[in-house]
Amino acid sequence: MAALQGEFTLSAVPLGAGPNGLLGVEQSDKTDQFLVTDGGRTVILYKVSDQKPLGSWSVKQGQIITSPAVCNFQTGEFIVVHDNKVLRIWNNEDVNLDKVFKATLSAEIYRIHSVQGTEPLVLFKEGAVRGLEALLAEPQQKIETVISDDEVIKWTKVFMVYKHPVLIFITEKHGNHFAYVQTFSSQTLSKYTLLLGQEEKCVIQNFAASVDRKFISLMSLSADGCVYETLIPIHPSDPEQNQTVVRSLLLKAVVSGLARSGVALAILDHDHVAVLGPPLPASKECLSIWNTKFQTLQTSKELPQGTSGQLWYYGENLFMLHGKFLTVIPFKCEVSSLAGALGKLKHSQDPGTHTVPLFVNWETSQGCGFGSQNSEQSKRILRRRKIEVSVQPPASEQLLSTIKKESEKHIEVELCKFLATKRTPDFHTVIGDIVLELLGRHKAEPSFYPRNSLMQLMQTHVLSYSLCPGLMEAALERTDVQMLQLCLQHFPDVPDSVTCACLKVFLSDSVQEEKMDEQTEILQNGFNPSEQNCDNCDRKLNKKPQHAAEETVSCPVVPKRAALLNAILHSAYSEMFLLPHLKDIPAQHVTLFLQYLYFLYLKCNENATMTLPGLHPPTLNQIMDWMCLLLDANFTVVVMVPEAKKLLLSLYKFVKSQVCICSELNKIEVSFRELQKLNQEKNNRELYSIEVLELF
Amino acid sequence: MGEFKVHRVRFFNYVPSGIRCVAYNNQSNRLAVSRTDGTVEIYNLSANYFQEKFFPGHESRGTEALCWAKGQRLFSAGLNGEIIEYDLQALNIKYAIDAFGGPIWSMAVSPCGSQLLVGCEDGSVKLLQITPDKIQFERNFDRQKRSAVHKMLVDRQYMGVSKRKCIIWGVAFLSDGTVISVDSAGKVQFWDSATGTLVKNHLIANADVQSIAVSDQEDSFVVGTAEGTVFHFQLVSVTSSSSEKQWVRTKPFQHHTHDVRAVAHSPTALISGGTDTHLVIRPLMEKVEVKNYDAALRKITFPHRRLISCSKKRHLLLFQFAHHLELWRLGSTVATGKNGDTLPLSKDADHLLHLKAKGPENIICSCISPCGSWIAYSTTSRFFLYRLNYERDNLSLQRVSKMPAFLRSALQILFSEDSTKLFVASNQGSLHIIRLLEGSFKHLHTFQPQSGTVESMCLLAVSPDGNWLAASGTSAGVHVYNVKHLKLHCTVPAYNFPVTALAIAPSTNNLVIAHSDQQVFEYSIPEKKYTEWSRTIQKQGFHYLWLQRDTPITHISFHPKRPMHILLHDAYMFCIIDKSLPLPNDKTLLYNPLPPTNESDVIRRRTAHAFKISKIYKPLLFMDLLDERTLVAVERPLDDIIAQLPPPIKKKKFGT
Q1: 3-class state of residue A143 by DSSP
Q2: Which of A56, A70, B391, B496 suits a disulfide with A114, CB 3.0-4.6 Å?
Q3: B339, A690: Cβ pair inside 8 Å?
C-alpha cells in the first residue's frame, strides 16, 4: 500500500511566488538538501529534515531568474540563469550573487538540467542542447535552431540510460505536440509527433516521464482528467524520419475534467503515480497516489488552500506549494501486489461496507502498452458490473437461484464474481451449499454437469467430503478423474470405500483412452528429453504431465495415471476399512498397481534420502504401506497370475537386499558411535586446568 | 574487583544414583525420593524444592517401594525383605521389620493411612497395621502362586486380566471402581473392577510403561515410560453439556533420556524420576494460580549438600563418593595471564589416595582438615579418623583407632581452622568437640541438644579464630556456641526456610547464613544481632533474578584480606558480594559478564553493585578460596554423567 505521511512546511515565510508558483525544486549534491527557486529573484537552499533554510541568494533588483537553480553534482556548485541569457555559478560560501562567476550566452536558455553522473546540460529555447563545460569554454558560441518557428518547448526532462544522459523535451505548435529525444552517447536527435488518439480535442496539461531500458514512458495528464501513456523508444530504428507515437489511456478520470489549472503528475515508481488536482469539479484540490497496475487509488490527501499545480518528487518526498507555503509530504510506496492494490476505490458510495475489490485480469492489466485500449474497455465494464453485483444482497442466495435455472456458462460467470468477493466467516458452508445445489441440479438433469464451476469451487480449499457428499459419487459416475484427483488432494475426510472406488477408476482402461485427446492440448513446450523419467510420472496432473513418448519401459503406467495414483497414495485411510474394498480390484489392475508401486520403490532407493523428486512425491512409507495393503488383500490372487508372480519374486529379492543394507547400516551406526566415544575420551583429558578469572 | 587463578577441576567422577521411587506427601508438601543405592532424600517443595534431609543408602537395601502413611511417617520396602520406617527428626532409621515373604516388590498404604500392604516375591500380599510407634503384621493374602510384581493401592486382589504375556508394572484403583494398569507392552488400560472387563486401552509407548500415580482428586494421573516420556491423563467431559467424563491423554513430556521408574502427582505438579538421575518437577500450568517462579520446570540433579572438602594449606581436595573417598592434590603453574586465559601447567593434579569405605553402608559425610593431615568420615554406624603423613612425595595413612563409643555416626564433620579441633554433629542432636593431638585425640566436650528437641544438626561452621561454633538443623534456628567457655552463646531466630549454608567471617565473627529461599543474612555473633548491612539488604530486598535462581547456595567463604567480601556459590553461579558497594535494585543488570574496560571511571562506579557474579563454571559443585589470589572450582559436566549411565532405549534409525 502506498501511503502519504504527515506533511510539513519548509518555509515559514511565504515565498514570493507569483501566479506561476515556483520555478523549481532541485536536489543539491548533499542528500536532504534542496534548492528552491521562486518565481522572482531568490534561490533558497533548504535542509528538509531540519525544515530550515541553509542559505539564500538573490539577484539584483531588476534582474529576474528565468530558470531554476540547479546543482552541478560534479563540482558541488550552484547554477542559475537570470534574464534568459546570463549564467551565474556560485558556491555555498558565496554571499552575493552579483559577485560570483557570470557568463553571458548568445541564446536564450530554456532550462539547465543537472543529474547525478554527468555534467549539467543546457537546453536552449530553440531546442539546442549543450554541455555546460563546452558552453563555459566559449560562452558566445553560436547556438543552432532545432525547432521550427512557432514551436514552443512545454516540458523537458533528462534521464541517465546506461550511464549516458538522454534528454527529452516536448514542444507544441498549433495544438500539436512533438517529442524530441536527444541521446548523447550517439549524438542523435529524434523527433516524434504525439498523436492524441481518440480524445482529439483534449489539451495536454501536464507531463511526466520515466524510463526503462528501451522506452521512455511519457505520461500526460489531459484536460479530460485522464492519464495517458506514450512509449517513446530511446534508440529509434530510423532517427532521420519523423515518427508518430500513439498514446493510450492509463488511468481514467483521476482529476476533474473541468479543472483548467492546478493539475500535476509525477511518476513515483513503476506502478505508482502521484496526481495533484481536484478529483471532482467542485471539490478542493487533492494529492492522490494511484496504482497504475491495478488502477486503484491508494491514498489521497486534501489540500484545501490550493496549489500552484506544480509537483516535484525526490526520494521519498513530494514537494508542492500549498497555499503560500512550500510543503513536503513524505510518502511510501510498497511493491504493488494484488492484496495491496485492493485499497481504496475512488468513488465508493458507502465507505463503511463497500469495499469492492477489483477482479483484475493480470495478463491484460500488465501489458498496458500500445494496443491496450480493448482491455481497458473490458476492465471498466467489469468494474461497473462488479459494483452492481455487490449492491444486491445477499450474493450467495442470488447465486443459488441462478444455479437453479441458468446455463452452465452463466453460472460460471456468476460464480467467478461471487468468489471474488470478500470471504465471510461462513464461507465454507456457503460454498458447500453451492456445490450441493449444483449437484442437486445434476441429479435432476443428468446432462447438466458444471465441471468448471465445481473445479473452481474445489480450488477454494474449504470443501470437505462431508460438506458435499455427492460430489465424488457424481465424478465417479462420469469418470471425471481430474475432479476425483482434486477431491483426493483437498478433502481431508474421504471414506476408504470411496478412495478404493477412485483407485478402481484410475486403474481402469477409461483413463488410458481419455489420455490421448487431453495430452495433445497440454503438451509442454519447455520439455527436456534428458530429464529423469521419474520426474514426469510424479508430476501431478495439474502440473502438466509430459508427452507419452518419453515414457520409458520402466514406468509401467502413463504419467497421467501415475499422477492419479499418487493422489491415492497420499490420501488418508484406515487399514481395517480399506482392506475389504481392495479385495474387489481385478487381478490385472492389482498387478499394474503393484508394478507401479514397485517402480516407485525402486526409484526411492536410487538416492540416499529415499525420496522421490518433484512436488509432493509419495513418501517411502506410503509406498510400502500400500504395497503391504495390496499384497495383504490380494496375495492369493497375485500368486496365481504369472506376471505378478515374477514381480513378487523380484520384489522379494530387492527387499531382501534392502534388509541386508539396513543391517549393515546399523553396524556402521554402532561403529560411528564407538568413534564418537573415543572422541569424547579425548575431550575428557581436559579434566584439569588453571584459568584466569577476573570479576568486574 | 579482583583477578584470580582458578583451578578448574572436572575430575570429580561423581554419578548420582538413579531414582527408584518417589512419594509425595500432601500434608507437609514434601517429596520422598529413593535412589537405587538405597538413599532416601526428602525434598521440601514449599521451601524452594530444597533437599532438606537424607538417609544414606546401604548396599543390601535396594528400595523398591516408598510411601507416606499416618500423616507424615515414611516407610520403605526393598529387596532385602524389610519394611523400614525412617525417623525424620533424628535422621536415622527407626526400625526395620522383616515381612518374611522374600524380597518386597511393592507397597501401598490404605486410603485412611492406617494400614500397609506389601507384595512379596513369594506371591503373598501382607497387610500390616500401623501402630503409633511401630507396625504390626495383621493378615496374609496368599492366593497367587506367581510373584506379585504389581503395586496394590487398596486391600483388594487385583484380577489377572492381562491377555498377552507381559508384566503389569503398576496399577491404580480409583474409588469409582476403575482399575488402571500400566504394563511392559506400552499400554495404559482401564478396567471395570466389578466385571473384570477392559474398558479402554491406550497404547502410548513402544517400550514399558513403568510407573503410574493418580492425583488425590482422581481426575488426573501420570504415567512414565521406559523411553523417558511422561504422559498426563485427565478426566474430561465428553461434551460441554453432558456430565459424562472420559479419560483422555492430554500432555506428553519428554524431560528424561532414560526409564522413568517413578512418578508422583502433587496437586500442582507432575513429578518424575528415573535412571537418568534427574528429579523433574513439572508444574501443571492450569493448577498454578500465580505465575511466579514456582511455575517453572525444575530439574534437580545434584545433592544440595557438599561432597567436597578442601585443604587450603596443601591444596588438597577430598571427594566423597557413596563408598569411597578420593584425595587429589591440585597442580600448579608459574605462568600469569589475563582474564580467560588457560595457563600452562607446571605440575598436573595428582590422585593421592583412594580410600575405600568399610562395610556396606554409604558414607554420610567427610572432611579433610585445613592443614591436610587429617581425614574424617562417617557412615551410619561407624566414625573413621585418619592421620596423613607427608614425607616428600610419599603419603602414609594411619587410622586413629579406638574411637569413643559415642562417636558412632556423624551427620557433619568439621575441623577448626588450625586443625587442632574436630567438631562432630551426631544424629542424636549432640555436638562433640574433640582435640586432636599428634596421632591421637581427646574428647573435650559435648553440647547436648536443647531439652525437648531431637532435631539433628546438619550444618556446622566454626570461626577462623576457633572461638565460635555455629550449628543448624533443618528447621529450628542456628545455634552459636562459645567454644572457649563451652556454652551456648545465642540462637539466631528461626526463619521459615531451611538453612542451606553457614559460615563465620574472620575478624568480625559475623555469621553469614544462606536460606533455601535465596535470602542471605549476616548476623554479628559478638553483638548478637543482625548487622547493619543485613538489615539494609532485607529492607531493600534482593534482586529479583537473585531470588529466581533455582539451586541453593551450598558454600560460603571469605577473603582473608578483604573483610568486605563474601564468596558464595550455587550450582550455576559463583558470586562475590562486596558489602562496600551499593546494592542492586531490580532495574540494575545483576549479571554483567562484560569487562567495563572502555567505559569511563564514572560510569563504572555508577553501574557497579555489590554482586559480582560469574557463570563460567557449571554445574558447580564446590568453590573455595585457596589463598588471596587462587580459587578452586569443582565442576561436574552433565555430559560426563550421561556418558556413565547405561545407554537409553535405542531407537533404530534404519529399517529392519
Answers
A1: coil
A2: A70
A3: no
